[in-house]
Amino acid sequence: MKAVLEVMDQRHLIELQVLKERIKSIRKSVLDMTASTSAGLHVGASLSCVDVIATLYFMKMRHSPYRPDWVDRDRFILSKGHAAPALYAVLAEAGYFPKEELKTIKDLNSRLQGHPDLRTPGVDAPSGSLGQGISIGTGMALAAKRRGSRSRVYVLVGDGECDEGQIWESLMTAAHLKLNNLVLIVDRNGWQLDDRTEEIKRKAPLKGKIESFGWETYLIDGHDPEKILDALDLCELADGPAAIIARTMKGKGVQFMEGTNKGHKMRFSNEQYQEALTELEEAS
Amino acid sequence: MRTIFGEALSSLGEENYNLMVLTADVAKPTGVYKFAEAHPSRFFNVGISEQDMIGIASGLSLSGSVPVVAVFAPFLMRAWEQVRSTVARANLNVKMVGTHAGLSASDEGGSHQSLEDVALMRVLPNMTVVVPGDRQEIAEATRAIVAMKGPVYMRLGRDESLSFLEGGEVFRIGRAVTVADGSDITVFSNGSMTAEVLAAAESLDIGVKVVHVPTVKPLDSGAIVSAAKETGLVACVEEHSVIGGLGSAVAELLSGEYPVPVKRIGVNDTYGESGPQRELLRKHGLVAESIGETLKRIVRGKAA
C-alpha cells in the first residue's frame, strides 16, 4: 500500500510539473498576443488568473477539444470577460484551435473577439458585461442537475466585478438552490479600472460576505497550482455551492506590471515585450 | 390574457420536457403558477431579481433547455442590458414574456406601465417581438415562440376576454392579417388595440382597412407595403409610446419602400399615471371613439 501511495505521489508531482510547464507556455502566449496586436489587451487581469484557468482546464475539468459540444462536459465561464487573452491562451494550449490563431485577437473577422463570444471553439458562455457569470452558471448547474449529469460548472469573477449587484443576487439564488455542482472563483488581484478595489468600493471582508450568503468559501494563493487544486478538490465535497477566493497579483510574472494597475489595458513596446519574455524564461 | 398564457404554457409543458419556466416573484399575476403546479421540477421562482433570472435563463439555454421567463414588462426592462449583452448577442433560445404591458397596470401608475418595451426589444439584433391581442392568438403565439429557435419577446396586456380573430389557426410568427377591409385608410395595430380599431372602423362612414400586426419584428413587409399601396394613407395604433414601437417600424419600412403619410397613434412621449384603465386609455386617445375621431380627421385632411 505504501508503495502504491508513493507512486501516486510521484505521479501527482509529475503532473504538477507538466502543468507548470504548460502555464509557462500559456503566459508566453499572453505576452505574444499582447505584442502582436496594435489594440491594447487587458494583460494585467489576464496574468492574474492564468494559473487558475490552466489548473481548471488541465487538472480538473472533464472536457475535450475534440467534442467541444459534449453535453456532459464541465463548463467554465469567464465572467470577467476582459481576461479573454488568458482564456484563449488556455484553450489554444488545450487544442481547441491552433496557437497561431492567437495573434488574430481583436482583428476584424477573427474568431477571437475582444471579449468571450460563442464563435470561439471552447468558449462556453459569452461575457464582457460584468456581473452575469454566476447567474449563467446557475442556469447551467440547474440544467445539469435536471439531466442527472455529473457536469460541474466553474465561474471566474474579478474582485472589482463584485461591485455589481447581480453578483449578490446570484450568490443568494445558487445557495438557495443548494447547487453543489457550481464553483465560484474570485480573482482577488486588488485592482479595478480606476484604482485599488478597496478605494473604489470596499469589498472586505469578501470571504465573510460570500460565506454569509451560504457558500462554503476558501481563501488561497491563486498563483500556486497545488493550492488551487486542493481547494477545487474540497469544493467537490461541499453540500452547496462553493467559492474560492484566489489571492493574486495583477500582471503576475512581469515586474513592470506586477502589483500595479499599469497593465490594466496596455500595448507592449518592443523593449517591454523583450523584458517580459526574459523574465518569464528566467522564472523557475 | 395571462390566464390563457399560463394555461397554454402548462399544456406545452406536457409535450416539451425541455421547457423550463422562471419568474421573479410574480408567478400568480403572470399566470405561470399554472405551469408551476403542473410541473414543479421545471419551475423556478428566483425571487425579486430580474437580472439574475435572465442570466439563469441564458445558462439553461446554453445547456439545451428552453427557458421561458415571465415578469411584469416594465421590470423585465431592468434586465435589458443582460438581454442585450447575453441573450440577444449570443442568439440564445430564451423566451421572455412581459405581462401588464402598456397602460394595463392602470391603477399602479407610471412605475408599472410599460410604454417603451417594444422599442427596447425591437432594436436588438436576433430578437423576435410578438404582441398578440386575441385569446386564441395568445395561446397559439405561446406555442409558436416556444417552437421557434432564438430569443423572443412576447408582450401581454391585462384584458382577459378579447376575441376578434376568426379561423382555426390565427397566428403565425411574422404574419400580419387583414381583419377589416376599406379603401380610405389602412390602420396597422396590435395587441388589444386591434379590438378598439375594429370598433372604431365599424362606427365610421369612411372605408378603414384594419391590419392586425402581432409580430413587430420581423415585420410582414409584403402585407404592409401592399396595404399602404391600396389606401395611400396609413395610421398605426398601439398601447405604447409613439416612439420606437409598431408605428415607428411601419414608418421605417414605408419611408423606404412606399412613402405615404403615416399617422402614429399611441402614447405621446410621456409616462403613464394612475387611473381606471378605460379612462386612462381615453386620455391618450386609445379608445374606439377617439381613434375614430383621429381617423376621420386624417382622411378628411387628405381629401382637403
Protein described:
The complex is a heterodimer of chains A (284) and B (304). Chain A has 284 residues and is an alpha/beta fold. Chain A has helices at residues 2-36, 43-47, 50-60, 84-94, 133-147, 165-176, 197-200, 206-212, 225-235, 270-282; strands spanning 75-78, 153-158, 182-188, 216-221, 242-247. Chain A has one domain: Thiamin diphosphate (ThDP)-binding fold, Pyr/PP domains (Rossmann fold), CATH 3.40.50.970. In chain A, strands 1-2-3-5-4 form a 5-stranded parallel beta sheet, sandwiched between helices. In chain A, helix 1 (2-36) crosses helix 3 and helix 5 (133-147) packs parallel to helix 6 (165-176). Chain A is globular. Chain B has 304 residues and is α/β, with parallel strands linked by helices. Chain B has 2 domains: 2-155, Thiamin diphosphate (ThDP)-binding fold, Pyr/PP domains (Rossmann fold, 3-Layer(aba) Sandwich); 177-303, Rossmann fold, CATH 3.40.50.920. Helix content of chain B is 41%, strand content 19%. Chain B has 13 helices and 12 strands. Chain B has helices spanning 2-15, 27-30, 33-38, 50-62, 73-76, 80-88, 117-122, 135-147, 193-203, 221-231, 246-257, 277-283, 288-303; strands at 19-23, 43-45, 66-72, 95-99, 128-130, 152-155, 177-180, 185-189, 208-212, 215-217, 234-241, 262-267. In chain B, strands 2-1-3-4-6-5-10 form a 7-stranded mixed beta sheet, with helices on both faces. In chain B, strands 7-9-8-11-12 form a 5-stranded mixed beta sheet, with helices on both faces. The termini of chain B are far apart. The model of chain B has no long low-confidence stretch (mean pLDDT 96). The interface between A and B is medium-sized, with 33 and 29 residues.
